[in-house]
């Protein structure tokens, strides 16, 4: 093995490398002021990029406003964002007093402050409308500000303290008192002239009262059952299925904020009630009246929600962005068809279209329903599980108060339409739409009264 050439080549290579390394060193020295050496960055927490661009919440100042009787608490949140690209205030419920109350998630707030203002001091307002509650309620909300790059500020706790705000029942009670003064005067004048009409009038009222309780319970099950079905499909557990035959609100918890969740109540309720209505219409009678009433009344109430763009219809619009005219058109069709078929069933109550007693019977029964619902709400809802767990007691009583005004007015409206417009068109209707006026007897009340009693008992068990 010839070691000498190898040794020579090694020496030549070392000299050449030294020259090259020297030249490279000179170049680096000459360019050092123009090209900085990159700095190794420490990774930031997940969801953030450059620390210097992260928004910072400076402080929160409270303002209180009374808007049409509702207390609004505004928190003016001052912040700064070096990049000027803050977009959203993110809210998350952290704690409640009393502890453990379930409330739906709070909507995030879009930031509209300009980039220049954000770099110095931006302002965004988060607001909470205090609910109708029977006792003071405090909410602690964890607030963060997020920017377009995905950075989040450090969380800041913001407190909203709502005082006790029980519903005012005085207007409803005054309305009912005035209504019954007029009704009692009408009953006295009517029975004075026609004493024999007393029994038939009482039978008509009792039949409608019992039938309304049964259909109210079934309608509540169908409507809230639609919500519950989608809640289960979405993979959630139904914590509370609050259904009953009384004149105050029902609901399902938890709230799954999807369009299908809100639309399912309309779909299930209307489709099932229409099927029942079609099956029983040809065999409609006093005994199955509560079930035949299910579609007409459900169509009126749910159609009215669509017409006024309230309730589930509002939430569907909010999520999907569908135009209002779709809901108004559907609501108009439902309300008109519901009123027509409802009036078509009144002869089963022993009320002929030309019978002026309708002006007394319908408002009186709807008023009795409302008073019964208010009584149940005041006696059984405060301190019940739904009040303690969800703080819904005040809202439930408020809904009973509102219905105590709304429902009797509907009764007057239906009675007027029945003895005027429907009276004129009923002789021209085809035979399958006409119904002969029934002469009621006490035995006709057996099935509706039994079903009503069962509905009330089950409803009380559920709400307590």
3D structure, described in words:
The chain has 464 residues and is of the alpha+beta class. It has two domains: 51-162, Immunoglobulin-like; 170-463, no CATH class. It has helices spanning 3-31, 115-120, 170-193, 197-233, 259-281, 289-292, 294-307, 311-320, 324-344, 358-380, 385-390, 393-419, 421-425, 446-463; strands at 56-67, 70-80, 86-97, 109-110, 122-129, 137-147, 156-162, 240-242, 251-253. Strand 6 (137-147) and strand 7 form a beta hairpin. Helix 3 packs antiparallel against helix 10 (358-380). It is elongated and about 85 Å long. The chain starts with a helix and ends with a helix.
Approximate helicity band: 40-55%
How many DSSP-defined strands?
9
Secondary structure class reads alpha+beta
Which residues sit in consecutive blocks of at least 5 with pLDDT less than 50?
A: 1-50
- Percent in strands: 5-15%
Order of helices and strands: HEEEEHEEEHHEEHHHHHHHHHH
Mean pLDDT: 87
Q: Helix count, per DSSP? A: 14
Number of domains: 2
End-to-end separation: 104 Å
- Gyration radius, rounded: 35 Å
What would the principal axes of the Cα set say about the shape? elongated
Biggest sheet overview: 4 strands, antiparallel
Order of strands across the biggest sheet? 4-3-6-7
Produce the secondary structure layout:
Layout: H1 3-31, E1 56-67, E2 70-80, E3 86-97, E4 109-110, H2 115-120, E5 122-129, E6 137-147, E7 156-162, H3 170-193, H4 197-233, E8 240-242, E9 251-253, H5 259-281, H6 289-292, H7 294-307, H8 311-320, H9 324-344, H10 358-380, H11 385-390, H12 393-419, H13 421-425, H14 446-463
Antiparallel strand pairs: 1-2, 2-5, 3-4, 3-6, 6-7, 8-9
Helix pairs in contact: 3-10, 3-12, 4-5, 4-10, 4-14, 5-7, 5-8, 7-9, 10-12
């Amino acid at each position: 093995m010839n070691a000498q050439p190898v040794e020579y080549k090694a020496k030549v290579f070392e000299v050449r490398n030294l020259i090259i390394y020297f030249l490279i060193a000179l170049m680096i020295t000459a360019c050092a002021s123009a090209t900085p050496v990159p700095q190794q960055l420490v990774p930031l927490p997940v969801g953030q990029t450059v620390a210097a661009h992260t928004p910072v919440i400076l402080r929160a100042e409270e303002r209180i406003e009374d808007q049409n009787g509702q207390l609004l608490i505004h928190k003016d949140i001052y912040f700064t964002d070096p990049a000027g690209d803050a977009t959203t205030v993110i809210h998350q419920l952290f704690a409640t007093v009393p502890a453990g109350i379930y409330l739906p998630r709070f909507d995030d707030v879009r930031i509209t402050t300009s980039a220049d203002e954000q770099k110095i001091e931006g302002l965004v307002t988060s607001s909470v409308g205090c609910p109708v509650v029977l006792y003071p309620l405090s909410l602690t909300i964890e607030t963060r500000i997020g920017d377009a790059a995905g950075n989040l500020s450090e969380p800041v706790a913001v407190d909203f303290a709502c005082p006790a705000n029980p519903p005012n029942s005085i207007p409803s009670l005054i309305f009912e008192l005035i209504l019954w003064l007029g009704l009692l005067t009408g009953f006295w004048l009517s029975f004075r002239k026609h004493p024999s009409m007393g029994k038939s009038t009482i039978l008509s009222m009792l039949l409608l009262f019992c039938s309304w309780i049964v259909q109210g319970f079934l309608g509540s099950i169908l409507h809230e059952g639609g919500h519950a079905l989608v809640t289960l499909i979405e993979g959630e557990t139904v914590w509370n299925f609050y259904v009953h035959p009384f004149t105050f609100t029902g609901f399902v918890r938890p709230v799954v904020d999807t369009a299908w969740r809100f639309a399912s109540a309309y779909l299930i309720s209307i489709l099932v009630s229409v099927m029942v209505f079609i099956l029983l219409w040809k065999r409609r009678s006093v005994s199955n009246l509560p079930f035949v009433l299910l579609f007409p009344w459900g169509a009126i109430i749910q159609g009215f929600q669509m017409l006024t763009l309230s309730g589930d219809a509002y939430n569907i619009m909010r999520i999907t962005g569908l135009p209002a005219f779709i809901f108004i058109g559907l609501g108009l069709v439902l309300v008109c068809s519901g009123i027509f078929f409802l009036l078509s069933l009144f002869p089963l109550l022993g009320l002929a279209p030309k019978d002026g007693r309708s002006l007394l019977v319908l408002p009186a029964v709807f008023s009795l329903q409302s008073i019964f619902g208010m009584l149940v709400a005041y006696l059984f809802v405060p301190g019940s599980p739904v009040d303690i767990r969800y703080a819904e007691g005040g809202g439930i009583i408020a809904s009973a108060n509102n219905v105590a005004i709304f429902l009797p007015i509907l009764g007057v409206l239906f009675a007027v339409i029945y003895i005027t417009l429907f009276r004129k068109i009923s002789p021209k209707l085809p035979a399958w739409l006409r119904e002969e006026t029934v002469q009621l007897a006490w035995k006709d009340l057996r099935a509706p009264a039994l079903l009503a009693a069962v509905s009330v008992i089950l409803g009380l068990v559920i709400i307590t």
